[in-house]
Amino acid sequence: MLNEKLLEVIAHEGVVSIVTWSGTGAHVVNTWNSYLVIVDDKILIPAAGMRKTQKNIEFNNSVKVTVGSKEVMGHSYMGTGFLIEGKAGFIESGSEFDMMKEKFPFLSRVLEITVESAKQTL
Amino acid sequence: MLNEKLLEVIAHEGVVSIVTWSGTGAHVVNTWNSYLVIVDDKILIPAAGMRKTQKNIEFNNSVKVTVGSKEVMGHSYMGTGFLIEGKAGFIESGSEFDMMKEKFPFLSRVLEITVESAKQTL
Questions:
Q1: pLDDT of amino acid B2
Q2: How high is the ipTM of this complex?
Q3: How far is residue B45 CA from its own chain's centroid?
Q4: Min distance B42 CA to chain A CA atoms (Å)
Q5: Cβ of A25 under 8 Å from any chain B Cβ?
Q6: B117 touching chain A per CB within 8 A
């Protein structure tokens, strides 16, 4: 699901968007491509703030994530991107938390996204 | 509202996210920093697909846009980003449409966002 092309994208720096929504509308928060850590079919992301994202996820744990790079070949031209859909949760302890905390000392929690689909959009 | 720092960001290439939402959830579509054209307090974006975005906007014309660059200085470190909120519409004719069509021959409509706020998030 998280294929070579996606790994190539996140090897380039860029802005990731993480979209959640509740009854009152959509929320979007950003992180960097270089902050994404892929473990099997999960994406781990360091969270310092992301309080509104966490609140939305307690209401509805569906999440949409976009990531891309103009420096990676797409279907027809240079530049590609992915729309990733999955279920999200925040973790505050355990081995994945410890591994992430070592990489990103600034985090207070880890946003864990279990990927359900990852579509190359371009 | 659309200040120098934001103009500096969009002078660097990167992925823009455009978030809309309706009763059935949030939708996110992407474009490139280099595709944004600023005219006064409006952002013009070439639209080729973006059909779901257009459908959502007919229901609710509020939109959230994120844009950033790791190569532009933020509040404390390299890397900054903006969350832009505004009202959106699609235009299919007129002088702005013609100007955009000349720059981006692939467009079928222009997504016009009237900016209400643009907050530097990092």
A1: 84
A2: 0.96
A3: 6
A4: 20
A5: yes
A6: no
